[in-house]
Amino acid sequence: MRLKDKVALVTGGSRGIGRDIAEIFAEEGAHVCVNYTSNSKAADEVVAWVKSKGRRAIAVKADVANRAEVEAMVDRAWTELGPLDILVNNAGIETIVPFLELTDEQWTRLTDVNLRGNWLCSQVYCRRATAEGRKGSIVNIGSIQAAKVLPGRTHYAPTKLGLEALTRNMSAEMTPLGIRVNCVHPGLIETDMTDWVMKDPETLPIVLSQISLGRAGQPREVGAVVAFFASDEASYLTGQSVHVDGGWQGK
């Protein structure tokens, strides 16, 4: 119960890694606000699961790249669940587009969600928390692609490397005010976003051959690290980025 009675907001919490983070948080005693953008049914399922563990939970639809929607989401979470102690910036999108074919719209939307969204949610949360003199923890969810080169990700990879820099710089300013900021970079994790890799008989063996553990990770293996970063057990950790990638050695 490392997060007993803490209140957490998990963006993109209705599916994949975000869902498992929300579930682990509930197991650790936290009340959870589950953010989503389109699939209300999936978000409601996560809320029901969290409540089945005796915790409080709500689902809130919001685009993390839209300030008005983020402010409304944080306000609702604060009002219905209580002051936020933890923010997990998990919401993100990934597309694979060759560099020469990348459009302005594709670049803008992806960077808006993956990088600006993290900054925006963090700023809205930190402004309110510091105004009330509250301490807290932010965990950003990056990607192994912050350090690896993969074709078709000239728009995606920079957002994840930028997120690492954002983590360090936010930490430098916010930690003295009581809010720690850390980042988790998942590797190949078995979710719907990586389904195409897991089902490709040619690509999968190549990828797995570069991973020391020889397998894909599970969302809960990422969630466990996020829960640690969010807990008081990590009280002396801030501005850090950790790769949860099974020992991925390839480029």
Brief characterization of the structure:
This protein is α/β, with parallel strands linked by helices and about 250 residues long. The protein contains eight helices and seven strands, in the order βαβαβαβαβαβαααβ. It has helices spanning about 15-25, 40-50, 65-80, 105-130, 155-175, 195-200, 205-210, 220-230, and strands spanning about 5-10, 30-35, 55-60, 85-90, 135-140, 180-185, 240-245.
SSE layout:
Layout: E1 7-10, H1 16-27, E2 31-36, H2 40-52, E3 57-61, H3 67-80, E4 86-89, H4 104-131, E5 136-141, H5 156-174, E6 179-186, H6 195-198, H7 203-208, H8 219-230, E7 241-244
Keywords:
single chain, about 250 residues, alpha/beta, Rossmann fold, 7-stranded parallel β-sheet
Identify the CATH class.
Alpha Beta
Bulk shape: globular
CATH third-level topology: Rossmann fold
Whole-number average pLDDT?
Answer: 95
| Total domain units | 1
Radius of gyration, whole Å: 17 Å
**Low-pLDDT stretches:** none
